[in-house]
Amino acid sequence: MRIKNGFFMREVAGKYVVVPVGAQTNEFKGMIQMNQTGAFLWKALERDLTEEALLSIGAEILFHGIAIKPGMPTLAAEKDGVLFIGLSGNPFSAAIPFEMFVREILSLKMGDPDLKLRRETLTAVTGFSKDSRKRRFLRGKAEGKEVWLPDQQANGQMRSMVGCNCLIEIPAGSGPVKAGDKVEVLWL
User: Fold this and answer.
1) What whole-number distance in Å separates Cα of residue 107 and Cα of residue 113?
2) Helices then strands, each counted (H, E), the chain
3) pTM score of the predicted model
4) Are 184 and 117 in contact (CB under 8 A)?
5) Distance of CA 61 to the CA centre of its chain
6) Which H or E element spans position 12?
7) How far apart are the C-alpha atoms of 101 and 117, rounded to whole Å?
């Protein structure tokens, strides 16, 4: 678990405050005041300790970091035949690697191919304005042969998951998705 990017904590006149910075100022208007316990926890979460904790018990790190967005901080480790999967603290950043990796592992271990994600090419009804330097997954709501992309796609944004029944896979190096584009969908 880590602190969400775009927030900064400072001690001001003996009080601890957290304020948004950069693009986060468009989404969060205000500041958060914390007591000493909150400040202690914030400082503890400023860096990810998962890998360090797994190494301390003798686990072998299989990978730490993947080239997808969201979900880049995903980690996998193994000790004595037990697989550990470390996911992001942001809800949607955890959901993507869970669906991509954990679901696949469960399918293999349980011998149930129905657990695997089903892929299909659909037509985007709405677009997504950002370029995708990395392989990216967006939330979507598909019906028939069409898919709608919610307006809000932030990693910590859970409201846009309501009603979503698929993920839209955007290949690395892609430009914006426009209405009418064919997109690859993974059914949830």
Assistant:
1) 6
2) 5, 12
3) 0.71
4) no
5) 20
6) strand 7-12
7) 10
- DSSP per position, 63-121: EE--SEES-TT-EEEEETTEEEEE--SSHHHHHHHIIIIIHHHHHHHHT-GGGSPEEEE
Q: Is 181 exposed, middle or buried (0-12, 13-18, 19+ CB in 10 A)?
A: middle
- What CA–CA distance (Å, rounded) separates 6 from 18? 10
Whether the CB-CB separation of 132 and 68 falls below 8 Å is answered with no
The model's pLDDT over 6-57, given as tens digits with 9 standing for 90+, comes to 888 988 888 999 998 888 888 888 889 999 999 888 887 777 788 989 999 9
Cα–Cα distance measured from residue 34 to residue 23, given in angstroms and rounded to the nearest whole number: 22
Record the tokens describing residue 167, joined without a space: 């993920």
- Per-residue pLDDT, averaged over 139-155, amounts to 83
